[in-house]
């Protein structure tokens, strides 16, 4: 009797293995050979689900984006007109996309890897652009509830703050702590 393989579960298993490799060694470390070893599968099984390295890395970064999206949906928008609630909501949204715990730290590493790789690899550009646009939209919606005059401009500014703080959190460039990140974000949101 043939063995039934849950294709979605197998694909997720491969993506999780690749995710771990990207975190520890960068996107170049997620070779099919290493992903197969990490997942306990053979290379043919990995190739069955992913045509090439780029499609595997796109699946990894898409999974990270989906995780962030699921966390963001847990935060309902505040009732209109309550600026304090809107600011708390904005801070909650920002918390979900910042490297403030081990899981989000790993996600930020993956995002930084793929963002940097998108400069030279056209295969990564669409997913990076989509994630940037999604982040700006989420921020713009949250900022609009605060009552900021130009929510689009403020969303760009907040996205830049998110990127800079994330880079500093996951690299020796700044090595900022979660407490510092939260303090910087709270200080900025307080000025809105």
TrEMBL record:
UniProt cross-references to InterPro entries, sorted A to Z: BetI_C, Homeodomain-like_sf, HTH-type_TetR-like_transc_reg, HTH_TetR, Tet_transcr_reg_TetR-rel_C_sf
UniProt entry tagged with the keyword Cell inner membrane: no
Keyword terms of this UniProt record: DNA-binding, Repressor, Transcription, Transcription regulation
Residue ranges constituting the HTH tetR-type domain according to the UniProt record: 8-68
Gene3D superfamilies: Tetracycline Repressor, domain 2
Source domain of life: Bacteria
Pfam families assigned to the protein according to its UniProt record, in alphabetical order: TetR_C_6, TetR_N
Protein name from the UniProt record: TetR family transcriptional regulator C-terminal domain-containing protein
């Amino acid at each position: 009797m043939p063995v039934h393989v849950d294709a979605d579960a197998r694909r997720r298993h491969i993506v999780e293995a690749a995710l771990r490799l990207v975190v520890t060694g960068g996107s170049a470390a997620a070779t099919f050979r290493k992903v197969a070893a990490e997942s306990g599968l053979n290379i043919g099984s990995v190739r069955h689900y992913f045509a090439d390295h780029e499609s595997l890395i796109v699946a990894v970064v898409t999974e990270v984006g989906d995780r962030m999206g699921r966390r963001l949906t847990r935060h309902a928008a505040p009732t209109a007109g309550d600026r304090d609630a809107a600011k708390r909501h904005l801070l909650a949204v920002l918390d979900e996309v910042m490297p403030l715990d081990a899981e989000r730290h790993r996600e930020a590493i993956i995002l930084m890897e793929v963002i940097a790789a998108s400069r030279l690899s056209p295969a990564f550009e669409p997913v990076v652009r989509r994630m940037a646009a999604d982040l700006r939209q989420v921020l713009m919606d949250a900022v609009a509830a605060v009552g900021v005059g130009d929510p689009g401009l403020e969303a760009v500014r907040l996205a830049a703050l998110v990127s800079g703080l994330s880079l500093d959190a996951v690299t020796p460039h700044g090595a900022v702590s979660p407490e510092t990140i939260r303090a910087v974000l709270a200080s900025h949101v307080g000025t809105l």
